[in-house]
Design brief:
Elements (H helix, E strand, L loop, with lengths): L1 H8 L8 H17 L6 H15 L3 H17 L3 H11 L2 H16 L6 H13 L4 H15 L3
Helix pairs in contact: 2-3, 2-4, 2-5, 2-6, 3-4, 3-6, 6-7, 6-8
Length: 148
């Protein structure tokens, strides 16, 4: 865990190898879910589903990745530094997909919290995405959540 944090925060960070990039993005999903002070079962299930779909994982592998991400999220620096580090190592297209996944998790508990909204605006900006791109990601997440 310390190794990935060191690489994320190094001044000359290159693209993270896939397992570490996957873990860093999963940790950001966890951070969004925990923002409102309630880490609900719906959010945990949504994170697991997002991880399984995005990375082709089975349910146990997705749950293991989320559990590792929960540990990383607790050890990770403030959201600004953490998200900026992710931006440096994750290509733009993947950041757009990550934003959709983040909205999916933020909306999973059925509540729109002002603190979550504020953090989502900040994260979008730090990932180099516009408000319009974030809104499109939110709309995509809402459409996906309506699917059976």
């Amino acid at each position: 865990m310390i190794d990935i944090l060191r690489r994320l925060l190094a001044p000359d960070t290159d693209r993270l190898p896939e397992p570490d990039a996957r873990l860093a993005m999963a940790a950001l999903l966890v951070r969004i879910a925990r923002t409102d002070g309630l880490y609900s079962a719906e959010e945990v299930e949504r994170i697991d589903r997002v991880l399984a779909q995005r990375h082709g994982l089975g349910p146990f592998e997705a749950a293991r990745l989320r559990t590792d991400a929960e540990v990383l999220e607790q050890e990770a620096p403030d959201t600004v530094r953490f998200t900026r580090a992710i931006k440096l190592v994750v290509p733009l297209q993947d950041r757009s997909l990550l934003m959709t996944a983040l909205w999916s998790v933020a909306l999973a508990d059925g509540l729109r919290d002002a603190e979550e909204d504020r953090l989502m605006r900040l994260v979008a900006n730090l990932l180099g995405l516009t408000d319009v791109e974030s809104a499109q990601a939110r709309q995509q997440a809402e459409r996906e959540s309506d699917l059976p």
